[in-house]
User: What shape does this take?
Amino acid sequence: MKIVLLGSGRVATQLGLALQQAGEEIVQVFSPTQAHASALAEKLRALAVSQLSEVRTDADLYIISVKDDAISELASSLKVNGIVVHTSGSTDLSILAPSSNQIGVFYPLQTFSEQKRVDFSEVPLALEANKPEVLGVLKKLAKKLSRQVIEMNSEQRMILHVAAVFACNFSNHLYTIAQQLLASQNLDFNLLRPLIAETAAKVQQSLPGEVQTGPAIRKDEKILQKHLNLLSKNPPLQEIYRLLSQSIVNLP
Amino acid sequence: MKIVLLGSGRVATQLGLALQQAGEEIVQVFSPTQAHASALAEKLRALAVSQLSEVRTDADLYIISVKDDAISELASSLKVNGIVVHTSGSTDLSILAPSSNQIGVFYPLQTFSEQKRVDFSEVPLALEANKPEVLGVLKKLAKKLSRQVIEMNSEQRMILHVAAVFACNFSNHLYTIAQQLLASQNLDFNLLRPLIAETAAKVQQSLPGEVQTGPAIRKDEKILQKHLNLLSKNPPLQEIYRLLSQSIVNLP
Assistant: This one.
């Protein structure tokens, strides 16, 4: 399959590398910034293009992997016969309608780093398409990359994305808050690393509701009050502590 | 060293097992509930006692590992010559003063499960004591169990505990929220497990502030608004989303 990659960010990079490793041919990498296009194209042994008019129209698959609010404009300017997909969790399939009559979604659920290479076989891929034939093509490709391939509609995918924001983006921010609290007492973040690793490890086998620990689930009002008092100098932090503790206390 | 363990919960159990493995002698396990005392005492090949009057007064170390609000009463009823410590993150050292003139804190920073055995060598131990000699004894013991032993005062320990609540207890609760969101669309929690594992893995090398991803750090207002709309049927959840996103957006 001849694939054109539109985008050069973290998702485009990791997906491009995984596709290449699976033996697919990336023929072009498009980015409006020539340097970005070139940097990724070089890794993928593809041609770099920075003008949309230079994008080949005879490829089999076009993967739009750009910031969510740039998808619409790109899809409106692209007119091709091949399959066009985007990789966004919270963007409707229909946004791609202007670009082709074969459209789909290829959403990899993972947090991608600048440097760290991700094992794509462990990355769930959520697929959607406007036609069964298109879905078939995407499924076949997805299964070459990942062990977890699932079809879902745009509504389900958005819920999945919101869930990922809670489980990943917000969790990471709580690590940041914890790190800042430690720094305020000259304590090293290393103290928390084993705890963070174990917290994530526990839910690989169990459901998180079964392994909740801490003062809120024990309804230990005295400790909760002590912690709230300690955070009184930082009202936004205190409010996050209060709200999350309340949410735990309210669990059925 | 002859050790008496007062308590039979998750921390007492895991700590007792680790001490036994390190070659220490647990002579008694005290719990007001005889069955609990017996169950743990059997594992530790110790004597079970359910009356405080039966606790030996000639032991070298007494470890009080009970619910935070039960420490004070226990410490007031205990009169011994050996060292008395508690294992609580948010309880002052001074609460132990009535029990002995050698007092300390032995706080293991980890989330303990009912079943899963914890590798204690990876559990940071925060120590405090009222005398250098007592600290010396605790340090020697702690180093037998863990690679990360650190002395800190009660104020630092409370900050460490609050940080742990954010990094562990609250993160786990976010996993629960994510799991419930998925369940509402009949999606399996397995979809999120690799993401959760990777999120925790990333901060084992990096600082969390350096690897934050998601719509809030990109200041992607459109997606944030979409997600808030989606959560409008669940105001407490919407408020958590709003507050955490705002806290990420406000990062310097």
Summary: The first strand of chain A starts at residue 2 and ends at 6. The two ends of chain A are 51 Å apart (CA to CA). Chain A touches chain B through 94 residues (CB under 8 Å).
